[in-house]
Amino acid sequence: MKVVILGGGFGGVYTAQNLKSCWPLGEKLDVTLISRSSHFEFKPLFPEVFAGRLSPDHVRFRLHDLCRACHVKIAQITGIDPRKNVVKTDKGDVKYEYLVIALGGQPESVPVTQGAELSFFESLDDAVRLRDRVAALARQMRSGRTKSRARNSVVIIGAGPTGIEIASEASYLLGTNRDKPAAASKRPRADIYLIEFAPQILHAWGQALRDETRRILGEAGVHLLTSTRVSRIERGRVYLNGERSISADAVVWAGGLRGLPLYQSLGSPLDRYGRFRVNARLQLPRHENVFAMGDAINTAGFPMPIPQSAQAAFQQAHCVAANVRRSIAGKALKEFRYSELGVAMPVGGRRAVAHIGGLPIEGHVAWALEKALFTARVPGLANKLKLFDGLALEPLEQEGMRYLKEKGIEWEFLRENAE
Length: 419
Ligand SMILES: Cc1cc2nc3c(=O)[nH]c(=O)nc-3n(C[C@H](O)[C@H](O)[C@H](O)COP(=O)(O)OP(=O)(O)OC[C@H]3O[C@@H](n4cnc5c(N)ncnc54)[C@H](O)[C@@H]3O)c2cc1C
Fold this sequence. Notes:
Strand order of the largest sheet: 5-2-1-9-21-20
Number of helices: 11
Distance between the termini: 62 Å
Bound molecules: flavin-adenine dinucleotide
Radius of gyration: 23 Å
Low-confidence stretches: 180-184
CATH architecture of the largest domain: 3-Layer(bba) Sandwich
């Protein structure tokens, strides 16, 4: 039986692993995973790369290593023909008997005039580019080469968890949370604007977490503008509510995703954001051998709210793999049930706000807990150890070296005496 999985992100990789790990059926399945990138990128850790605490190699993993029992094809998918059971790619057509669509979404942006630059935060390359951009701005400010206050500003559009994480980490990189008040300081200052069109941030989260996040953003020196819509972006300027504008050295889009244009090629019902409408078993209506999941689908009709998150895609991957197996065996399919394990959001400088197991947690403990959960989720023992080293051991080692240096103790001296 030929199963083709589209996308090497959360939904795709975990579906492939679940399908192949089921003995004895997994042995008989011919599973092909198609993705445009040769690596699985662990998006929830992008803010750590942006902050410079992890290197890109800590958060990207080779698909060939993760899906050893599958065929991995690196290709750009251009269309799907469900009548002929064929996926079209830039490297030729691929036939399937069962299809799993886990291609995620693409940023839904506002008009950007020619010459203006808009950064995204959807790939590891985006995160590294933005880190370099903000670091260059920080260097310019330190060297005193930027004089006018108006020129040092970063605008982040969208105050969801990703926008808040970028704004908080940027506040550490640019020093807005530590600086003296502008009037008292002669150094050029940065302004970080976080813009949200809804009247409140994090509407799906509890009031306590919302208030705590607002307080932390305030302390970080982030200007939070709610009920504000970005109407267009021009070179160096962002227009708000069609009227006033603010200057911007960097503009980052964290304002949500829409479906990929190629989703239209199936002729299946889409929502107004171009995402698939699926039934409770995660199948496309009228195409019982086609499943979709993750950021590619609209889950508004489900009995419980389901976020567009890695956590949801991970759980959907279990359900889809089970349903492919059940369908092959001629059994009734399972309905998807989402269980919320908790929410956590880093707020800069190894701190986070979280609500885990019904308990609100804040600070370094919340950050460590979130990172421990991610480390457990990262596929493969070697990858987990590498990540643990990057998150915990390397900072401890650096802290130790700093302490020894402060005390005037040379590392070489200690080593020689130990021998
Ligand atoms: C910065 C950031 C931080 C996040 N933090 C969290 C968090 O803390 N917790 C949480 O639960 N969620 C978090 N999320 C959300 C989570 O990462 C996504 O919801 C999740 O990745 C969705 O999984 P997916 O499989 O649907 O899509 P993705 O993981 O996006 O995978 C899509 C795959 O399809 C491939 N692809 C796309 N188009 C094509 C094409 N035309 N041809 C070939 N291949 C293609 C891509 O290369 C990719 O491999 C975060 C997201 C971001 C961007």
